[in-house]
Amino acid sequence: MFQKIIHKRDHTRASQKQFWLRVGVGIALVFLIALTSWFTFGRQKGSSGTSSSAPVSAGSEFQDPLTGVRVDQIHANQQVYGVMIDENRDARPQSGIDQAFLVIEAPVEAGIPRLLAFFSEDQSVDKIGPVRSARPYFIDWALEFDALYTHVGGSNEALEKIKNGATFDLNEFWNGPQFWRATDRYAPHNTYTSTELLHAYVEKKQTSGRTTRPLYGVWKFKTVASESVFPQRLSVRYVVPDYVFSWVYSVADKVYVRMEEDQPIKTKEGNEIHADNIAIVITDVEVIDAIGRRSIRTTGEGDAYVFQDGKKIQAVWKKPAASERLRFFTKEGNEIEMNPGKTWIEVIEDDSQLIVQP
To answer: For a designed S-S bond to 258, which of 16, 59, 215, 273 qualifies (C-beta 3.0 to 4.6 A apart)?
Structure first.
């Protein structure tokens, strides 16, 4: 009898061991399945095939949709601010343009260029300007981001286009609190704003239900850095001699440095202006009145050049409609991948305005 009791106790202990062993194996299996599912979902989420969440090969997992720079978290459909910046000799040095992720430079009256500098809502830029007036073709470039188009007045044609179009508009004439006038500059070269003031205006409009989150296409960006080739200098002639700007490629720093004559151009804060890509858009430019205002074709397609890593790429620019992104393609029809970082686009009417030197 005693032996039977011992045998029964041993059998019970064995059964318990088998039971807990099965439980342990089951828990481990569930944990393994959950871990695998989490990893798989995370990878799929990061590579969903959408242009705003492209994975990169190393480091931070994602690329910022606007700059292609590696980030730990995607900030899709950020609000973009497009600010008209004065390029007149009396307006220099400017503030904030070194921090813009994209700048488009195009001529206005007398062929003097003006800038449209783009910033995103996650940037903090304390001083941007001097802010100047609107022109119709700059509105088309702002529309492709659903950007807050920021300016001080404008030509009659530009103001009429804003009035009758879909532009998310911020005119200093009616929204003074979003701007200030500097005391060390003379009008009209003394109006400034900041990303903080622009963000406050957007929040106000969102709260009142008068605006929604923007929608826009994004460029293709490289996921692997290209090798630098050799130093390169390209010059763009808007009006001789005061408005000839050069970009000199630094192999050591892997950036193009904006120059005037042989000196780097600096902001009022003392910062050099760098770009990772320089694109040249060649398009139709026509003088339309006695003041010298221009009409510039922004849609359709035309010849272009893209400069990256000390290399010149013959290209084609395409912008199917005002609300579509301006993109660059090879002659074979493949979209050109941009270097992550900052891009400057120079708009000219023919090749004679561009000089390229090794």
So the answer is: 273
CA dihedral 330, 81, 247, 111 (to 10 degrees): 90
Residue keyed to tokens 């695998």 = 36
Please give the pLDDT value at position 59: 58
Task: Return the pLDDT at 2.
Answer: 35
Cβ atoms within 10 Å of 86's Cβ, excluding its own:
25
The CATH number for 232-357, chosen from 3.30.420.40, 3.90.79.10, 2.60.40.10, 3.50.90.10, is 3.50.90.10
Beta bridge partners of 346: 105, 280
222-280: pLDDT as tens digits: 999 898 888 999 999 999 888 999 999 999 999 999 999 899 999 999 999 999 999 99
Q: Is there a cis peptide before residue 358, judged by omega within 30 degrees of 0?
A: no
User: Left (φ > 0), alpha (ψ -120 to 50) or beta: where does 192 sit?
Assistant: beta
The token pair at 232 is: 């390169």
pTM: 0.83
